Amino acid sequence: MEIGPLLGILTISRPGTTPFVGGQNDSFTEILAVADEMKCIAFVFNPLEIDWSKKAVWGYRYNFKLNPGEWERQICPLPNIIYNRIPNRTLENRDDIIPVLDKLRRQYGPRFFNPFFLDKWLTHKVLFQNGKTRDFLPETHQLKDPAVLSDMLSRYRSVYLKPKASSLGNDILKISITDNNEYFFIHQALGQETREGIIRDCRDILKELPETGEEPGYLIQQAIPLARFRNRPFDLRLLVQKDRKGTWRKTGTAARIAGEGSITTHVFYGGTRFNADTVIREAARNHGFSYKKVTKQLRRIAFLFPRVIENAYRQSFGELEMDIGIDEKGKVWFFEANSKPFRFDEKLLRAKSLVRLIHYVRYLDQLQS
Questions:
Q1: Stronger pLDDT, 23 or 305, i.e. the higher one
Q2: For a Cys staple, 283 with which of 25, 35, 166, 227, CB 3.0–4.6 Å?
Q3: Positive or negative CA dihedral for 221, 320, 29, 116?
């Protein structure tokens, strides 16, 4: 029987989790099940449990034969391929983790893929400097002083403030100028009630920003008047992955509809999932823009953006999830990219993504043979 490559899924567990963070348990179980079906041996491991002298690591494999199945810890050889799924920047940037990741990147090269979270500001600069991708970008700046905020608000009337190092719409603020020339803000944070208020002096808005530990820690971005689906704003999650030939391919697109009163479409804040094609077609009819032109723009983004991003970082990324908006006139906008996509709940898209992941692992395995 042919046995494929040895895939190591890299993560870090928090104290008290069994054995992984939050929803990673289900995600990793799915990956290991598909890997097994495709004759690829896979396990999950912590970078601090590598024994370099023995070229071995404590890994977790899932025993599907038990009912219910369970994770089992066992000694495994160092993998041929490493898929980085460390779940957040805080864990990835720990002092004890950084040197291990650096060593893995040096030793594995492209066989260590999705090596780190993308820097939002660097990614924007790279895409802005490329004439083929620039027109898809909303105006974005680092929030260094109130003058930038005042200028952007005077031109766009509404802006978003986004932490450079966060995801899931956490700690985002939306600020709009009211008819009385005051500043209305809404602050959204995971696990907290949404805050909102009125401020008269633009400079006071900076006092509402949570501490990020970075300077400057926030980006300011023009607010796009998003097209609506059944009277709610929506955006798209576009997943691209490398295939069995190491070529970027679009895997699928999902729509996210904003929850009532939410300033983003994230499910954590009341957003709902919907079929992307249905949403785009209905929005095109209601707003009077061209469905064909929108899908053409989406294809262009799927083709161009992962290549430009990967070339700029000079690293190996096996997948990227891109947050895309469509405005009321049918223009498509790129908001940001995520090198550690969260699991898509759309069953067909998820199944396709898992198969493509293992195809790419097999491609990487061929690089060393």
A1: 305
A2: 227
A3: negative
H or E stretch including 118?
none
Domain ranges for the chain, please list them.
6-113, 121-136+225-339, 140-222
Query: Which DSSP category does 55 fall into?
Result: T
Band (pLDDT 50/70/90 cuts) for residue 59 is: very high
CA distance 294 to 173: 28
Q: How far apart are CA 133 and CA 327, in angstroms?
A: 17
CA distances for 257 relative to 59, 172, 254, 334, angstroms: 39, 17, 10, 17
pLDDT of 175 > 60? The answer is: yes
> How many angstroms separate the Cα of 160 from the Cα of each of 176, 184, 219, 226, 345?
9, 12, 8, 13, 27
Of 184, 180, 221, nearest to 202 by C-alpha is 184
Of 185-199, 250-264, 318-332, least confident by mean pLDDT is 185-199
Please check whether residue 243 is in contact with residue 359, taking contact to mean a CB–CB distance below 8 angstroms.
yes
Global confidence as pTM? 0.90
Q: Which CATH architecture has domain 121-136+225-339?
A: 2-Layer Sandwich (3.30)
Q: Are 340 and 317 in contact (CB under 8 A)?
A: no
Who contacts 14 (Cβ-Cβ below 8 Å, separation ≥6)? 21
Residue 324 and residue 301: Cα distance in Å, rounded?
9
List, in sequence order, every beta strand (DSSP E) within the chain: 6-10, 41-51, 56-63, 70-77, 81-84, 112-113, 140-142, 158-163, 172-177, 183-188, 195-199, 218-222, 228-229, 232-242, 248-257, 272-275, 319-326, 332-338
Confidence (pLDDT) at 1: 41
Which amino acid type is present at position 296? K
Looking at residue 205, its pLDDT comes to: 75
Expressed in percent and rounded to 5, the helix, strand and coil fractions of the chain are 35, 30, 35
Beta strands 70-77 and 56-63: pairing type? antiparallel
* 89 and 212 Cβ atoms separated by less than 8 Å: no
Question: Domain 6-113 falls in which CATH fold?
Answer: Rossmann fold (3.40.50)
Q: Is 84 exposed, middle or buried (0-12, 13-18, 19+ CB in 10 A)?
A: buried
